[in-house]
Write a structure and sequence with these properties.
Rossmann fold; six-stranded parallel beta sheet; alpha/beta
């Protein structure tokens, strides 16, 4: 049994679907509670949709009702369906599933995709909000039998938080590079022409949900300062909240203010194949985030053979590893030097390509098989 509050495009939701499909392919019966339909066609999959008497929005009322209704709906669903195992895709969902875990006495596996509210980045948030979030996350993690973190920093944070109070099983399962369709490599010039970019021009691509933690504005601000002739920027992604929309508008205003309207393009959401085609038509992928779990877009860029650079932060550091591939997302010179070196220094260019190929090889594995093993190991050892 598992749950999903709402549908938000992005890497976390993609991984949630991959997890469900991995369980279904192994013959597990999966029951998922959600606010909006999660359309998976499989005879062993049942989606239980909670109907609300108003249009679903990412607002306070909807979230409050989720906190009040989901625990009891999940308990009833788990009791009726006689579930054997509970899977929470995040500390919040672990909190919502805690009542079911406690009453039904079933093991719970919790996956953590982003840093928790106990990390230093949350120190700037309001105290009441931080206190409430910490309480919710702490309860969810406390009742989890196994916790699976997406990177080593999150694992270490959880061990520091819970390790002294109870014995907790914390594993690390990084994201992998998905199988890339070979057809996306055909004629990258067609994709460039779509944006009016010539064959000899240089293209930087970046991708993700348009949220402030992605720090895309640093690429926009410093694009003219690189000194690289005919350099273009493609920002791939969109958002699903009002805050995301405000951030998108801010980026577009910044582009207009800097008179970069012909050099910066916003593509919106793309299919996987379209995303990979853009990567194949680009020269460099840059992810300047301030906070990450383990970005799928970065892994997919590596997967098509696109040279990559990113912020020297947990999550990205787990992927890129080498200092030559990373920069401080808050320092102008750090980013500029990397981009300038890549486009002007042939030796550095070749080194980046070699290092990226090495990191690509590390993340080519069967993620679905590993996630199934981590879940079923817990059920086998704890279900009596």
């Amino acid at each position: 049994m598992t749950a999903m509050y709402t549908l938000r495009k992005g890497g976390a939701y993609d991984r949630f679907i991959m997890m469900l499909e991995a369980l279904l392919e192994k013959g597990c019966h999966v029951h998922c509670l959600s606010l909006t339909p999660i359309l998976i066609q499989h005879p062993y999959y049942t989606n239980h949709v909670v109907g609300l008497p108003f249009k679903i929005r990412n607002g306070f009322v909807t979230k409050a009702l989720v906190l009040l209704l989901f625990p009891f709906c999940l308990l009833f669903m788990g009791w009726r369906e006689r579930i054997d195992l509970i899977v929470a895709f995040g500390p919040l969902y672990a909190f919502l599933l805690t009542l079911s875990k406690w009453v039904l006495k079933r093991p719970m596996v919790t996956f953590i995709r982003l840093e928790t509210s106990f990390s230093p980045r949350w120190q700037n948030s309001s105290k009441p909000y931080r206190f409430l979030t910490r309480m919710v996350e702490y309860v969810g993690l406390w009742f989890s039998d196994r916790i699976v973190a997406v990177n080593t920093t999150i694992r270490d944070d959880v061990l520091r938080l819970l390790g002294r109070r109870r014995k907790v099983d914390v594993k690390v399962l990084p994201n992998n590079i998905p199988s890339i369709t070979e057809g996306v490599r055909e004629d990258p010039l067609l994709m460039r022409r779509r944006f009016g970019v010539s064959e000899k021009a240089k293209v930087i691509a970046t991708a993700g949900v348009l949220t402030r933690r992605k720090n895309f504005e640093i690429l926009v601000k410093y694009l003219p300062k690189t000194g690289v002739k005919d350099l273009f920027l493609l920002i791939i992604g969109e958002g699903s909240t009002e805050a995301n929309e405000r951030y998108r508008d801010y980026l577009k205003e910044l582009v207009e203010t800097l008179n970069l309207g012909k050099r910066v393009f916003f593509t919106g959401w793309l299919t996987k194949e379209e995303l990979w085609r853009i990567f194949c038509a680009s020269d460099l992928f840059v992810l300047p985030s301030r906070s990450e779990g383990m970005p799928n877009a970065l892994l997919e860029a590596l997967g098509v053979g696109l040279p990559c650079m990113g912020s020297n932060i947990p999550g990205i550091k787990d992927i890129l590893h080498y200092e030559d591939l990373m920069f401080d997302p808050l320092e102008e010179e750090s980013l500029l030097q990397k981009i300038q070196g890549f486009f002007s220094d042939r030796q550095f260019f070749d080194k980046v390509k070699i290092l990226c190929q090495e990191r690509k090889d590390v993340f080519v594995f069967d993620w679905e098989e590993r996630v199934f093993e981590m879940i079923t190991e817990t059920s086998t050892s704890l279900i009596k």
